[in-house]
């Protein structure tokens, strides 16, 4: 049985210009211990679907699905209180802008220990110890001192590590990473991704990696879901996707990769022709 | 801005919507402004008040200075003891309150106009110089502005009027001085932000002199917040002038300025509520309409605060 | 944090010097001879005139007078009231507690209600609650507060008879003043009904004085909250599974309060102006009424001294608010 199973998810928003469907009829499944990459361009609804799973969408959103099962339980039938118990403990999420993801008024230690206080029975000293452990596990040097730092005193990469520490604090079964490295330097990107994968293997978590970077997908994912304009275009394991994409959109996406360029030009550009006449 | 509803037929390349016609900026601002119901209502009320003020000598039912000896403290027309001739009643010496209120509108609007003009003009010049010249001049000017702002505004205005002598004109001058630092600060801030932008450098390289740079290149781009502040100051001026009038330091009786009317009405709290209530309602209506306009303008002109 | 505090303090000094300069120039700007102005209508003989000129130092060069003036200030000599002959500082200290008590009650009321209203309006954005609270706030700061005071008196004192019209306490209660705060002193006196009377007298003036700050704080809180609610760290907080009250009440509010603290500081200056009007209407024996009375009586030493003292006090409050801001906003502390 899959850890997370979504059937026919539709999310729409009431906007000034009418009803906008961010996600339409999405089917998606993630198994324990699996790395699923969700790819698509901006506006494809990839973040919105996962926010719906976490229960983080605003009240203006209407969510409907045939089923949204997490560990066998239907999320749609749970009360808000029950869902809040799941969030942070069994499923967690990290976001795109690391520094903005942390509350600027509270120390790093406070923000980590807050999760522990909410979901575990540890006392203050126990929470402190665990927080230091977590910071160490995500690769922050001098973790004990770092507990009293504020987010603005740290770099983007360090803040993302803290976010990962917060997310993995209660060893969740599912970790959703929404474009975790997009706002970071290229060198840091690799470090963060390696960290995510290492933790994923250690804890046997399912990892949903939302990204628009096909290179990241190729390196990290087991399976891939391609989304466009709120709909699922393709769902395949990573090797099949890259070698033999079925859907025309996926093909277009892959052929836009600079790596796939032939003779100095992208396939689609070369196919359009007319370049020979230009100087 | 067009929001595209997703096309059910799969389309790898999103189709572009019909090209939007460029809208002239003034019309676009008006469109944004009218989206706020409050702002439109405020504008309507304000226009009505301006009309009343301008036409007061012709449309007021009575002469505001005319004292009807046989109609002292007559209550409003709709209450017991009221008279049709005096819609809002009369005051202690038999003057028609409605007519006095209408003429009072002329004073209040005049006060707002004069004060804002003086404060705006002097504030802009001071702020432009401070921001443009920079260095010691800037520091000195801003220090002076800080000192003025360190005093509570009404208190400072009062003391200034004490020096200059009570009267409407001196009150306007005092209030303008007290409000001016806000404009100076705003202008200086905007100038500092714009000074290093490329279009200013371009104009300077093209040969524009200092004065031209200040007034014609930089200033037009700082207008948004200044206009919003101007409406705010307009209503502040009316309120402050009324306060000074109430304290006996502004317009002097028998001038039908609303604040002065309230000063005369104070002793009739228990006996003649309409003498107290009516002029205050006029102030409230005027200031409220201006603040509504100000809110609407702020939403229109300040892009950061544009509501989605 | 200490460096931040010191830097703030240093910024204040030149402004303070400027204030003393303005206060010093005040009497000298007045049209007319300064001694005659102080003497009033009675006029003064030529010998007495020369005496007074020498006594007050009006015959010395301006800069010398200023230096002497600063010297006097440092010794606590702010001049003498012409009508009561007592030192200005003494008169100020006698009346200040009354204004302080009223102002404190007003700012507390304004902050508590204003922040609550602002949070409610922000959380229920676009609803009728939002529009009603913001509409009320708009009316609140569009009203002339002296008219508002008169209206409330007409309604609650004259028609309904619920509240008194003037003074700090009913005349039947008399007891020695210990702190100058009627609420405290009435409790200390142990007399039955005294405290209730003190509260009774505070109700209307506090409401009147609090109205504008309340409206402004409510609007500011709402817009600060709206900005905060859209931030990413709010999603983080919710993703931790925290309760909505904690998410709004702690994570959001803590950040939203930062600009609101600045607003509260700015309102202190507004409160002083409001106090002048409120104290006049309610015959409240504070420094606001003292100033306006002195201006009409042409007691210029009082006006000069009072102006300086009030401005200094406002600056002190602003400095405190600046420091409070540093406490509330960690980002400013570490620059």
Question: Strand percentage of chain A, roughly?
Answer: 15-25%
Which chain pair has the greatest contact?
B-C, 43 and 45 residues
Oligomer: heterotrimer
Write down the overall geometry of chain B: elongated
Look at the structure and name the CATH superfamily of the domain at 99-247 and 281-307 in chain B: MetI-like
The total count of helices of chain A amounts to: 12
- Whole-Å distance between the termini of chain B? 11 Å
What overall geometry of chain A do the principal axes of the alpha carbons give? globular
Radius of gyration of chain B: 25 Å
What is the helix fraction of residues of chain B, given as a range?
A: 55-70%
CATH class categorisation of the domain at 99-247 and 281-307 in chain B: Mainly Alpha
Mean pLDDT of chain A, nearest integer?
Answer: 88
How would you characterize the largest beta sheet of chain A? 6 strands, mixed
> Main β-sheet of chain B, in a few words?
none
Task: Report the C-alpha radius of gyration of chain A, rounded.
Answer: 20 Å
Q: Helix share of residues of chain A?
A: 25-40%
Protein described:
The relative contact order of chain A is 0.16. Chain A is built from 12 helices and 11 strands. Chain A has 279 residues and is an alpha/beta fold. In chain A, the strands form 2 sheets. Chain A has a 6-stranded mixed beta sheet with strand order 7-8-9-3-10-11, with helices on both faces. In chain A, strands 1, 2, 4, 5 and 6 form a 5-stranded antiparallel beta sheet that branches. Chain B has 308 residues and is mostly helical. Chain B has a domain at 99-247 and 281-307: MetI-like fold (Orthogonal Bundle). The model of chain B is unreliable at 1-20 (pLDDT under 50). Chain C is mostly helical and 335 residues long. Chain C is built from 14 helices and no strands. Chain C is 77% helix and 0% strand. Chains in contact: A-B, A-C, B-C. The B-C interface holds B 38, 143-144, 146-147, 149-155, 158-159, 162-163, 235, 239, 242-243, 246-249, 259, 262, 265-266, 269-270, 273, 276-277, 279-280, 283-284, 287-288, 291-292, 295, 305 and C 14-15, 18-19, 22, 26, 29-31, 138-139, 141-144, 146-148, 150-151, 153-154, 158, 223, 269-274, 276-277, 280-281, 291-292, 295-296, 303, 307, 310-311, 314-315, 318.
């Amino acid at each position: 049985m899959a850890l997370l199973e979504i059937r026919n998810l539709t999310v729409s928003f009431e906007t000034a210009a009418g009803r906008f469907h961010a996600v339409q009829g999405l089917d998606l499944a993630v198994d324990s211990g699996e790395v699923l990459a969700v790819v698509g361009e901006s506006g494809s609804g990839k973040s919105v679907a996962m926010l719906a799973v976490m229960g983080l969408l605003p009240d203006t959103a209407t969510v409907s699905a045939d089923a949204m099962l997490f560990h066998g339980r239907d999320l749609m039938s749970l009360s808000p209180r029950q869902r809040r118990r799941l969030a942070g403990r069994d499923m967690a999420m990290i976001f795109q802008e690391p520094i903005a993801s942390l509350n600027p008024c509270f120390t790093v230690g406070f923000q980590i220990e807050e999760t522990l206080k909410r979901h575990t029975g540890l006392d203050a000293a126990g929470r402190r110890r665990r927080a230091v452990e977590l910071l160490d596990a995500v690769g922050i040097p001098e973790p004990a001192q770092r507990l009293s730092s504020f987010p603005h005193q740290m770099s983007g990469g360090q803040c993302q590590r803290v976010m990962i520490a917060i997310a993995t604090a209660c060893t969740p079964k599912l970790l959703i990473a929404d474009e975790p490295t997009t706002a970071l330097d290229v060198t840091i990107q690799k470090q963060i991704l390696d960290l995510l994968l290492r933790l994923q293997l250690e804890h046997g978590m399912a990892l949903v990696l939302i990204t628009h970077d096909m290179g990241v997908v190729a390196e990290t994912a087991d399976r891939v879901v391609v989304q466009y304009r709120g709909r699922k275009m393709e769902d395949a394991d990573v090797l099949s996707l890259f070698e033999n994409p079925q859907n025309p959109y996926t093909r277009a996406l892959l052929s836009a990769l600079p790596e796939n360029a032939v003779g100095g030009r992208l396939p689609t550009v070369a196919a359009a022709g007319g370049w020979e006449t230009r100087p | 801005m067009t929001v595209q509803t997703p096309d059910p037929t799969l389309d790898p390349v999103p189709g572009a919507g019909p090209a939007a016609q460029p809208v002239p900026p003034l019309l676009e601002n008006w469109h944004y402004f009218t989206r706020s119901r409050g702002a439109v209502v405020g504008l309507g009320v304000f226009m009505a008040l301006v009309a009343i003020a301008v036409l007061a000598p012709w449309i007021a039912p009575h002469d505001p200075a005319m004292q009807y000896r046989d109609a002292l403290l007559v209550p409003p027309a709709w209450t017991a003891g009221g008279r049709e001739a005096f819609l809002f009643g009369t005051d202690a010496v038999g003057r028609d309150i409605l007519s006095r209120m209408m003429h009072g509108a002329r004073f209040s609007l005049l006060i707002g106009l004069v004060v804002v003009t003086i404060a705006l003009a002097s504030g802009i010049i001071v702020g432009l110089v401070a921001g443009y010249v920079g260095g010691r001049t800037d520091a000195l000017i801003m220090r002076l502005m800080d000192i003025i702002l360190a005093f509570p505004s009404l208190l400072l205005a009062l003391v200034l009027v004490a020096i200059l002598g009570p009267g409407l004109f001196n009150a306007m001058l005092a209030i303008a001085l007290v409000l001016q630092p806000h404009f100076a600060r705003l202008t200086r801030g905007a100038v500092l932000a714009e000074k290093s932008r490329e279009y200013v450098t371009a104009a300077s390289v093209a040969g524009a002199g200092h004065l031209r740079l200040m007034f014609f290149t930089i200033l037009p781009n700082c207008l948004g917040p200044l206009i919003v502040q101007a409406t705010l100051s307009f209503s502040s001026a009316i309120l402050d002038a009324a306060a000074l009038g109430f304290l006996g330091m502004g317009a002097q009786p028998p001038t039908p300025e609303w604040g002065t009317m309230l000063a005369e009405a104070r002793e009739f709290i228990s006996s003649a509520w309409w003498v107290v209530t009516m002029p205050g309602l006029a102030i409230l209506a005027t200031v409220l309409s201006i603040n509504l306009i100000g809110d609407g303008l702020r939403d229109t002109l300040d892009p950061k605060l544009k509501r989605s | 944090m200490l460096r931040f505090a010191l830097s703030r303090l240093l910024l204040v000094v030149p402004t303070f010097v400027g204030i003393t300069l303005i206060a010093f120039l005040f009497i000298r700007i007045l049209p007319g001879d300064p001694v005659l102005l102080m003497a009033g209508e009675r006029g003064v003989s030529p010998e007495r005139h020369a005496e007074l000129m020498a006594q007050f130092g009006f015959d010395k060069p301006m800069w010398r007078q200023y230096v002497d003036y600063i010297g006097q200030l440092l010794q606590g000599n702010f001049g003498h009231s012409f009508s009561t002959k007592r030192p200005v500082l003494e008169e100020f200290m006698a009346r200040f507690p009354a204004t302080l008590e009223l102002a404190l009650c007003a700012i507390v009321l304004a902050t508590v209600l204003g922040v609550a209203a602002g949070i409610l309006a922000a959380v229920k954005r676009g609803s009728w609650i939002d529009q009603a609270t913001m509409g009320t706030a708009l009316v609140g700061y569009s009203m002339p507060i002296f008219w508002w005071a008169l209206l409330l008196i007409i309604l609650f004192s004259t028609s309904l008879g619920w509240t008194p019209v003037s003074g700090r306490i009913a005349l039947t209660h008399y007891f020695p003043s210990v702190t100058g705060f009627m609420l405290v002193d009435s409790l200390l006196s142990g007399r039955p009904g005294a405290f209730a009377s003190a509260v009774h007298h505070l109700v209307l003036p506090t409401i009147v004085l609090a109205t504008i700050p309340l409206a402004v704080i409510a609007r500011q809180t709402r817009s600060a909250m709206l900005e905060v609610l859209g931030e990413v760290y709010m999603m983080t907080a919710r993703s931790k599974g925290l309760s909505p009250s904690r998410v709004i009440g702690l994570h959001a509010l803590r950040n939203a309060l930062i600009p609101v603290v600045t607003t509260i500081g700015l309102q202190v200056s507004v409160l002083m102006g409001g106090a002048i009007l409120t104290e006049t209407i309610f015959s409240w024996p504070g420094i606001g009424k003292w100033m306006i009375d002195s201006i009409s009586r042409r007691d210029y030493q009082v006006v000069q001294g009072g102006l300086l003292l009030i401005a200094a006090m406002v600056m002190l409050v602003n400095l405190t608010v600046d420091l409070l801001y540093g406490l509330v906003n960690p980002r400013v502390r570490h620059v």
